[in-house]
Amino acid sequence: MNKKINSICFYFFFILFIFSFLNFLFMIYFIMNNLVVFLEWEIISFNSISVVMSILLDWMSLLFMMFVLLISSVVIYYSKSYMSSELNLVRFIMLVLLFVFSMILLIISPNMISILLGWDGLGLVSYCLVIYYQNLKSYNAGMLTALSNRIGDVLILMVISWMLNYGSWNYIFYLNFMKNDFIMSIISIMIIMAAMTKSAQIPFSSWLPAAMAAPTPVSALVHSSTLVTAGVYLLIRFNMLLVDMFFFKILLLLSILTMFMAGISANYEFDLKKIIALSTLSQLGLMMSILSLGFPELAFFHLLTHAMFKALLFMCAGVIIHMMNDVQDIRFMGGISFFIPLTSLCLNISNMALCGIPFLAGFYSKDLILEMVSFNNLNFLVFFLYYISTGLTMFYTLRLIMYMLINDFNLMFVYNLYDEDYVMLKSMFTLLFMSIVSGSFLSWLIFSYPYMIYLPWNMKMMVIYVSFLGGIMGYLISNMQIYSLNKFMMAYNLSNFLSLMWFMPNLSTYGLNYYFLNFGQKLLKIVDLGWSEVYSGQGMINILKNYSIFYSIYQMNNFKVHLFSFILWLMFILFMLLLIL
């Protein structure tokens, strides 16, 4: 059985990897010849009704598909070892493949109907994957994820109904000449809000850390290139329509606040997977904000580079959690780089890429984005939040490295720590190579001419200043000798507000549910289990029971009972006669 499952895993890995390579070749051909292919496949034709499936292939969709297929192939190969004790591994892999298929359908769709199919497929399969380990926490996380994404699904459905005014759902035809149309502006607002739900921007942020209840390979896939990037990709496709809208300015503010909020919350968190999830939320805020400034190619560039090192980061976290006997608290780790050097190497390089250390993948996109922000005519609040959030990234990353790899040995056991799971290491080294190379490779590929950005010295060095400051703060906070700073960080009321993502999970769960559930409980108690029972089933049973008890006394054939009832009847008859006379 085990050999059979291993062969299935390898088979799917091989197929996805080959498809990824083919997509890469096609993408090079398309980008060199500046090609766009629009395919229409007529599925059914009956009288005047025809159902047509549209597919859009250009360099962007092919490149994104290549990244999705590469990461999913590596994740399936990694799952072969990570999920080896799972009895239903084939079911898990089928769910992952369904997830990937939904994402690909979303990527290649120029049509709102097929976008909805991919979009809703992602939401449904993500629910199945989040509740994969069946317990109460997973169920709550799954419901929060599904219901948050359901808002986006409803908005896409409303977009479909509004687009009936144009006679076709192929949005690609209307982007150029329908900019100033009132109906198209309503559609645009709905598209932005749908993208905000999928990419977890404020006020829909709380589902993303909750989705960490899923198995770690799923987290690696979801947080790098599939579910959370669907909203960003949709806005990149619709960007021409949205670029002059006022609502985009609101999106800019919300996305920057998301980035800032996630950066702060990550510094208070001790759950390894949640820290990485909050870093994803921070990077999504960065992508959305640069998109709302009108740079869709930069957002796409960062989306792709981020996918590589974030998938690697989750894989490293998965290996460490496995070896730590499923302990996710970073306070129980420390000095593990001595025991698992190769995993620690992958973790460090992916963390450095996340921080934007020069010449790794993240540097090429993050540095360009921040320089374009400096170059833009923005107000001080936006500028300040951008750079503070960049510093916070360095802050929580160095804190994570200090707690896990450098600080004193703090483990409960050592016997489980080994670095010889070659299946996991092979998949991690594939992504390690991409985390180093993909930034420069994509910057040469996407931007056909080099960006030359001239800024004053201090503005040019601003990224390095805030990163250095964030790094120092991360070192001081995680170094346990400095108690005063730790106490300041843990000031109770402030820390509650900051660490609980500005009370967003409470607002989106208890805040929305409490009154409805409380009312439902009272309704159940008073009506269903109260008066309706008295006047229906329970009441009738009581009456019949009392009657049956009363009649059972007669059926005992006791002389006293019969004599007593005879006297009662005589008295009753006499009383009636007296009344009549």
TrEMBL record:
InterPro entries: NADH_DH_su5_C, ND/Mrp_TM, NU5C-like, Proton_antipo_N. The gene is ND5. Keywords: Electron transport, Membrane, Mitochondrion, Mitochondrion inner membrane, NAD, Respiratory chain, Translocase, Transmembrane, Transmembrane helix, Transport, Ubiquinone. GO terms for biological process: ATP synthesis coupled electron transport; electron transport coupled proton transport. It comes from Prismostictoides unihyala. Its main location: mitochondrion. Pfam families: NADH5_C (PF06455), Proton_antipo_M (PF00361), Proton_antipo_N (PF00662). It is an enzyme of class 7 (translocase). The chain crosses the membrane at residues 9-31, 51-77, 89-108, 114-133, 154-176, 182-200, 220-240, 246-268, 275-295, 307-324, 336-364, 384-406, 427-447, 459-477, 497-517, 561-580. Core subunit of the mitochondrial membrane respiratory chain NADH dehydrogenase (Complex I) which catalyzes electron transfer from NADH through the respiratory chain, using ubiquinone as an electron acceptor. Essential for the catalytic activity and assembly of complex I. Core subunit of the mitochondrial membrane respiratory chain NADH dehydrogenase (Complex I) that is believed to belong to the minimal assembly required for catalysis. Complex I functions in the transfer of electrons from NADH to the respiratory chain. The immediate electron acceptor for the enzyme is believed to be ubiquinone. One of its GO terms (molecular function) is NADH dehydrogenase activity. This is NADH-ubiquinone oxidoreductase chain 5.
